[in-house]
Specification:
Radius of gyration: 26 Å
Order of helices and strands: HHHEEEEEEEEEE
Distance between the termini: 71 Å
CATH class of the domain at 54-163: Mainly Beta
Number of strands: 10
Low-confidence stretches: 13-31, 41-45
Structural class: alpha+beta
CATH architecture of the domain at 54-163: Sandwich
Length: about 170
């Protein structure tokens, strides 16, 4: 009796699955997967591996005034190097500064180099300064660096959104 049930269930499953098969190819399966496209995907994924230490030139600017020059990694820190193209009085907003990666991980400001924390301001132009954060996590593809408009000392807040690091050439 059990043999008959097993055979019946097996027959129903085989007929059910074969009846679901379509004679028309599915569009997404119709595309050819070539070795070049596989190599491209693998290569893109390999560039997502962060170096133990190194820097990448970003050259992103915000309204032609604030320039995000580089991202540098060490085993324990992420350092963002910026400069201003116009003479401004500058300070860094420790609170309400958002630094987050594409996976939603947020990182708190650890320290600054070459610039003061608000409210103390320093007049600067073409002088590099750095923001130091904990080391970013692996699988980094992009990040946001945003000064909040609602922060107490935010006169002209800037933001860099979806800064791409997949195409970085780490040095």
């Amino acid at each position: 009796m059990n043999y008959f049930r097993i055979l019946s269930v097996f027959t129903i499953l085989v007929l059910g699955f074969s009846g679901c098969a379509s004679s028309k190819p599915i569009e997404s399966l119709d595309k050819k997967v070539t070795n070049d496209s596989i190599d491209e995907l693998i290569s893109k994924r390999e560039t997502n591996v962060l170096p133990v230490s190194g820097c990448c030139n970003l050259n992103q600017n915000y309204m032609g005034i604030v320039v995000l020059d580089k991202i540098c990694l060490s085993p324990t820190q992420t350092k963002l190097i910026l400069h201003l193209t116009k003479k401004k009085k500058v300070c860094v907003l420790k609170e309400n500064m958002i630094f987050q990666d594409n996976n939603g991980n947020r990182y708190d400001l650890v320290s600054t180099v070459g610039v003061d924390l608000c409210p103390k301001r320093r007049e600067m132009v073409d002088t590099p300064f750095s923001l130091v954060f904990p080391r970013m996590k692996e699988d980094l593809e992009s990040f946001d660096l945003i000064e909040s408009e609602t922060a107490k000392y935010a006169h002209n807040p800037w933001s860099f959104k979806e800064v791409d690091v997949l195409s970085c050439k780490w040095q």
